[in-house]
Amino acid sequence: MNTTVLTLVSQLSNQEVVARVKLLAQRECEVTAAPIAHLAVLDERQLYLAEGCASMFTYCVEVLHLSEYAAYSRIEAARAARRYPMILDMIGDGSVNLTTVGLLAPDLTPENHLDFLEAARHKSKRQVQELVAQLRPQPSVPSSIRRLPTPSLAAENLAPGNLPAPTAALSPAAEAPVPARRPFIAPLAPQRYTVQFTANAETHAKLLRAQELLRSQIPDGDVGEIIDRALTALLKDLARRKFAATDRPHESDTDGPRSSRGTVRRSRQIPAEVRRTVWTRDGGQCAFMAHDGRRCTEQSFLEFHHVVPHSAGGEATVENIQLRCRAHNGFEAEMFFGRRNDRARGTDDDLSMTTSSTGSGPSNSLGAAFTDPLPTNPPDLTD
Ligand SMILES: [Zn+2]
After folding, report:
1. DSSP 1-28
2. 295 Cα–ligand 1 center, Å
3. Rounded to the nearest whole angstrom, what is the distance from the C-alpha of residue 304 to the centroid of ligand 1?
4. Ligand 1: distance of its center to the CA of 325 in Å?
5. Which letter, b or e, does each residue of 248-282 get, where b requires 16 or more Cβ atoms within 10 Å of its Cβ?
């Protein structure tokens, strides 16, 4: 059955696939809302008891065969929807998903639910966590460092949650059995975050050194303050090296013959002043615009893109250069040169590009999108 569906979908045009996916996603939202409404009533009447289950959770897992996560999130949504029925409408039209409801539900009140549900409309999990931090501000956590009980005694852990002595914040604490954790960032309150990561011995030593050198400016050696200064310097350096952004542009930033507009004619080299202007104008974000006006939000793996390719006479001017993420730079090169002309595609990229060109059907010009790796922060898993 599913093989048949896949065969049928494979025969659709790109436009038909995109249109149908949007329609099916909309239907999926509508279909999600209906069982939650029924679960809300089943739960209220405790109908699971007569069905041989001691709880709603058991009923959902053992009778409906939902996964534990699916059961939990649906019961949570059903109970929230009983209190605030507009949640069902918002799930039904795709304004909020079950993860959003789960994050917000514990803090919703008759007074605030309208404002916060509206604010959560179409928001990402991270954005909803920011809303929760507004609803339920957490106190700031002091900076601290703890030694992790890992096989490598050199490993250190910067972990919030421990109260350090003000001037001895970097002394390894006693051998507390702290499990190694993945890097962690969470909003505590508006404009405040807790950050936790595992550092190696070298990083720890650098931090100690920075504390010593900054003692007169940061007497308590606050790690957050030091990290902020380090990141500010890092970002400035990265912008200068990658995108030629600087407060003091030099005439020698460009090479090759200059035109009256300050650009290099017929050179593949993009002058630093063009890079600076383009980077600032595009806001450090991919400037690809979809046909419906949606702009790509990608801010990493950015490359300088010739709107008219260099090989087709496009010049390295502010007007002809835009920022692109790697995927869209490759996508537009494919659009211009055709998928199989990889050599030609390579000539349009200003930075090295390793976009995969495999994994799509012969008529599928959206191939790059199908071969993209998953994002670092995976989307909400509702099942
Ligand atoms: Zn993009």
Report:
1. -HHHHHHHHHTS-HHHHHHHHHHHHHHH
2. 8
3. 12
4. 4
5. eeeeeebeeeeeeeebbeebeebbbbbbbbbbeeb
Distance (Å) from CA 323 to ligand 1 centroid: 8
Distance 330 CA to ligand 1 centre (A): 10
Residues 6+ apart with CB under 8 A from 74: 35, 36, 39, 60, 66, 98
Q: What is the chain's alpha carbon radius of gyration, rounded to the nearest angstrom? A: 27
CA 202 / ligand 1 centre spacing (Å): 36
State in Å: Cα 290 to ligand 1 middle: 10
pLDDT in tens, 271-303: 988 998 999 899 989 999 998 899 999 988 889
* CB atoms near residue 373 (< 10 Å): 6
* pLDDT, tens digit (0-9, with 9 covering 90-100), for 30-71: 999 999 999 999 999 999 999 999 999 999 999 999 999 999
Calculate how far, in angstroms, residue 363's C-alpha sits from the geometric centre of ligand 1: 22
pTM above 0.70, yes or no: no
Cα(315)–Cα(263) distance, rounded to whole angstroms?
Answer: 8
Say which residues have a Cβ less than 8 Å from residue 373's Cβ, sequence separation at least 6: none
Q: Which of 46, 41, 66, 65 is nearest to 56 (CA)?
A: 46
Ligand 1 centroid distance, CA of 296 (Å): 5
SS3 (DSSP) at 208: helix
Tell me the CA–centroid distance for residue 378 and ligand 1, in Å: 18
